[in-house]
Structure formats: C-alpha cells, structure tokens
C-alpha cells in the first residue's frame, strides 16, 4: 500500500500492519487499546493533545506511527476532542460509514493498521468545512 511520508515529502510503499488484538494489547496501554482497537471514545476533555514545539509538528497514529494530521490543520472546536480540518493525506486515513448507536457517522481509521481514530463531520471551518474529531489517545507527536 502507499502512504504519504512527510519526512521525505513523498509517497512511500509500506506493508499493511495486521496484528491480532492480543498482540496489540501487549504494546498499547489499556486506554490506547480500548480506543484504537475496540472502537472506543475517550470522554470529552479527558485527555490532553500535546502541542508540538514551535507549533509545527505532525500527529501520527499511536499504534503504528503513520503520519495523520499536521498541527497547522488543528482548530479549536470546543467539543473537547482534538479537531482537524483535513488529514495529512487522503491516503493515510480510511473513511467508512459507521451506524453504531443508530446514528450514521463516518468513521476515520489509520490506513496502515486500521486503528480507530474518531469520526469526520461536515461542520468544520474553511477551507474544507470538514471536522475530523479525533481521540487524543489515538495520536502521538512524531
Ligand atoms: Zn496506524
């Protein structure tokens, strides 16, 4: 599969990461495991999304380190979850319809390891008007 690697500013061919739940459980904290592997949602305002030094940086998948969002696309949505108006590349995330809880939403996952990240909504700011509402626990600064 191809993903965008911002370190070399190029598309890169990488292997998909397929681990079993018990393998993930060994390398993730219980909270990281619950959110990313069991499709959990952290409570609003419950975790702090780290601010990169000099306000320039990239958030990656906590499971596999794939680059997901640029700090420059983060905005304050007031929801209590880190919010971004676009992913670093459409190749690096997977979007799919999620109808759990009887509501149709679009789930966002890591394209390389399938980690559940959050959901995307259509009420974001310009230029995209999208709001990627992401669990801070699913992200790490690269
Ligand atoms: Zn990942």
TrEMBL record:
One Pfam family linked to the record: SelR
Family to which this protein belongs: Belongs to the MsrB Met sulfoxide reductase family.
Name the UniProt record assigns to this protein: peptide-methionine (R)-S-oxide reductase
Cofactor(s) in the UniProt record: Zn(2+)
Catalysed reactions, semicolon-separated: L-methionyl-[protein] + [thioredoxin]-disulfide + H2O = L-methionyl-(R)-S-oxide-[protein] + [thioredoxin]-dithiol
SUPFAM superfamilies: Mss4-like (SSF51316)
UniProt keyword terms in alphabetical order: Metal-binding, Oxidoreductase, Zinc
BP GO terms, sorted: protein repair; response to oxidative stress
Gene Ontology annotations for the cellular component aspect, listed alphabetically: cytoplasm
PANTHER family per the UniProt record, alphabetical: METHIONINE SULFOXIDE REDUCTASE, METHIONINE-R-SULFOXIDE REDUCTASE B1
Annotated ranges, domain MsrB: 21-142
Matching InterPro entries: Met_Sox_Rdtase_MsrB (IPR028427), Met_Sox_Rdtase_MsrB_dom (IPR002579), Mss4-like_sf (IPR011057)
Transmembrane annotation, as ranges: none
Organism per entry: Berkelbacteria bacterium GW2011_GWE1_39_12
Enzyme class, first EC level, given as a word: oxidoreductase
Listed EC numbers: 1.8.4.12
Gene Ontology MF annotations: metal ion binding; peptide-methionine (R)-S-oxide reductase activity
Keyword Oxidoreductase among record annotations: yes
């Amino acid at each position: 599969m191809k993903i965008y690697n911002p370190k070399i500013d190029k598309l890169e061919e990488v292997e998909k990461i397929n681990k079993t739940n018990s393998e993930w459980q060994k390398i993730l904290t219980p909270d990281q495991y619950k959110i990313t592997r069991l499709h959990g949602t952290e409570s609003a305002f419950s975790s702090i999304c780290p601010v990169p030094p000099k306000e320039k940086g990239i958030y990656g998948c906590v499971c596999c380190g794939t680059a997901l969002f640029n700090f420059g696309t983060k905005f304050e949505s007031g929801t209590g979850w880190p919010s971004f108006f676009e992913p670093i590349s459409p190749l690096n995330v997977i979007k799919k319809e999620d109808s759990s809880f009887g509501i149709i939403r679009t789930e966002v996952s890591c394209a390389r390891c399938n980690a559940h990240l959050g959901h995307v909504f259509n009420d974001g700011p310009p230029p995209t008007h999208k709001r990627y509402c992401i669990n801070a626990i699913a992200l790490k600064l690269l």
